[in-house]
From TrEMBL:
InterPro entries for this protein: PhoX, TAT_signal
PROSITE patterns from the UniProt entry: TAT (PS51318)
Pfam families cross-referenced by the UniProt entry: PhoX
PANTHER family (UniProt xref): DUF839 DOMAIN-CONTAINING PROTEIN (PTHR35399:SF2), SLR8030 PROTEIN (PTHR35399)
SUPFAM superfamilies: Calcium-dependent phosphotriesterase
Annotated organism of origin: Paracoccus denitrificans (strain Pd 1222)
Highest taxon listed in the record's lineage: Bacteria
Protein name: PhoX family phosphatase
Amino acid sequence: RAQDAVEGSAFSFPEVEAGVDADHHVAQGYDADILLRWGDKVFADAPDFDPKNQSEAAQERQFGYNNDFVGFIPLDGADDRGLLVVNHEYTNEHLMFPGIVTVEDGKIAVAEATEARVDIEMAAHGGTVIEIRKVDGKWQPVLDGALNRRITAKTPMEICGPATGHARMQTAADPTGTRVLGTINNCAGGVTPWGTYIMAEENIHGYFTGALPEGHREAENYKRMGIPEDSYAWGRFHDRFDIGKEPNEPNRFGWIVEVDVMDPTSTPRKRTALGRFKHEGAASALAKDGRVVFYLGDDERFDYVYKFVTAGRYNPDDRAANLDLLDEGTLYVARFDEDGSFVWLPLVHGQGPLTAENGFESQADVLIETRRAADLLGATPMDRPEDIEPNAETGRAYVMLTNNTKREEANAANPRVENAFGHIIEILEDGGDLAATQGTWEILLQCGDPSVAEVGATFSTATTANGWFGMPDNCAIDSDGRLWVSTDGNSPKDTGRTDGLWAVDVEGAARGTSRLFYRVPVGAEMCGPCPTPDLTTFFVAVQHPGDGGEDWEGHGRPSYYEDLSTRWPDFRDDMPVRPAVVAITKQGGGRIG
Ligand code: FEO
Ligand code: CA
Ligand code: CA
Ligand code: CA
């Protein structure tokens, strides 16, 4: 149902009706076209996707699973040609592999993992770099693009910055502590001002198995990160994921990874200066003096909001001069005070409690155990920090706090106990300068259904029944400074709606008004959005569609919406449901919103 124009709103599109079904839905007057699906070719010579005959070799040449972060890097300054960079966060075996789910006596079982299956999963992780081009108003992949690339859980990477070579980073396969294979659980990410692709390693704990040797020095470190969680079978076939066999391997994950997409043979770099935790993403912008500021969320209940400020300045005239900016700078963690101010506390070895007395012998120790260092500094435990997007024009940044049902004590920055729907904090850096070390903050929105008083949602009264949302996760500030929020966790059972992409007014009389622009098929989570600089396209990522529904061979899975399922986006009996990146454009062309 179209929404009447809201006084002062930056948006005028007709709102989508919230709800749930097998398909995706975009605002009237717009097209939502499938651009890339799991299994699609990334190279001209890649094999066609054959879900019943998958292999590691094929998957290494095809688009990976569970697309999360999407970035667009224009080529030669063009509006209609660029590189799409996409994270493949994780794999859902029960949705990927035919016939592995069985039901006996009402109990669901997934068949024992095999090495071949694990290797396909590893190849379906990581990221994709692919050239895309707009032809007659529609985007399409360029399969012979010279810069096309797949990055996987086995791609050789370099360890850079202060933790490089440290004894805690060394393994049998890499006694130098400088080289690691692969990146995993890349949730959101970023694109730097110099056009590199940032992948954030988030829930790395699930990939590790086994037990540390008795009395091992990493015991506390791994406990703080939830390692091992044992969600994947990788450790049964690859010793490095078994901490009994390779106790230091988890220290080589949980970092920010930088990829120079202009050289497809470049070695991706793990930038240890930005700390080790469950990195949600790394959106960046320039400070007033040309240093570069990265906002970093640690997605765990009661964990922290961080930022990193480079020591060097961005040089717009010399791309090569920027390529190692991420190796030197200051990592800060936020303390949100009750009076509406905040302070960025520096995580610098030798300062305050970050000394040998507390087990930090060097900056490498501070970074490897970033969370413990932040604990000691007195940072404010938050309700699961996800994306944080800065707006360099205003010196503000928007912090998505997705939820925290375990919170028992409220504080000003986390004002609700049992916070099921999350909230958004707007911070204002002192002097409007993103490199400031303090500032003020306010709550932009407490999320959830405003018609249920106990929820305590604070959407404006102009927000319709379709316009509210819970569980903010990713977000974008478009080139007009407008905020878009995508969600993770709105379920038919709890909210009668799927996840989607909402447009949120942050300025003037309409501040706090939200409206639904796009929603995903049942079972999916919304990732992205990535608006192109000219605002004529929004790329969005539909992640794990059909999860919790029926697998594609018709076997059931424990589910909160058992009676619903989807074969999006192909709707073919011989095709599984597939995660996909979608390009949204306005019919007839023009600016989105
Ligand atoms: Fe992978 Fe924090 O969401
Ligand atoms: Ca996700
Ligand atoms: Ca996320
Ligand atoms: Ca999330």
